[in-house]
Amino acid sequence: MVESFTVYIYVDCYSQVPSSQSSCYGLMKLLDVLHFVQVLKGHIALGNARFPNGTNGHALDILARVPLWKSGLDYRHGTGHGIGSYLNVHEGPHLISFRPHARNVPLQASMTVTDEPGYYEDGNFGIRLENVLIINEADTKFNFGDKGYLQFEHIT
């Protein structure tokens, strides 16, 4: 039976979150769990975003980082990259990143992109959650500036 307001941690530290996998060796410390939750909050915030057509990945990157920034933490890699038909690991030109070249390509409907924030402590542990998303047109009540709005659909 699952009870409300109860946190369940698998003893073997393995759990399956929809299309994102988490594993560790040994017992997790409470601080590790808190960092995991911060990464998960960023992962969810980006995955649930609605944004004006023409928005670039540089503008969306902050959504995944804010929960970590609130604690003075961050990660050194981009948050997401394009994927496509040639099975390259990273396929552009679009990406979701703090790096300046993420400003160059506006995100458009039918693009695929990953949502993969993380947090790492050298020599201690690392966390990364990853889903594949497709960008779709969003049905919004209003359409400020007649731009149209986009949203992500989780495909993994």
Brief descriptors of the model:
alpha+beta; Creatine Amidinohydrolase; globular
Structure at a glance:
The protein is 20% helix and 26% strand. With 156 residues, the protein is of the alpha+beta class. Keywords: Aminopeptidase, Hydrolase, Metal-binding, Protease.
How would you describe what is shown here?
Keywords: Aminopeptidase, Hydrolase, Metal-binding, Protease. It holds the Pfam family Peptidase_M24. This is Probable Xaa-Pro aminopeptidase P. The chain has 156 residues and is an alpha+beta fold. It has a single domain (32-154), classed as Alpha-Beta Complex (Creatine Amidinohydrolase), CATH 3.90.230.10. It contains two helices and ten strands. The strands form four sheets. It has a four-stranded antiparallel sheet.
Average pLDDT over all residues? 85
Task: Output the helix-strand order.
Answer: EEHEHEEEEEEE
- What's the story with the biggest beta sheet? 4 strands, antiparallel
| CATH uppermost class | Alpha Beta
The N- and C-terminal alpha carbons lie at a distance of 27 Å
Name the CATH superfamily assignment.
Answer: Creatinase/methionine aminopeptidase superfamily
Shape descriptor reads globular
Number of structurally distinct domains: 1
Name of the CATH architecture: Alpha-Beta Complex
Secondary structure class reads alpha+beta
Helix tally? 2
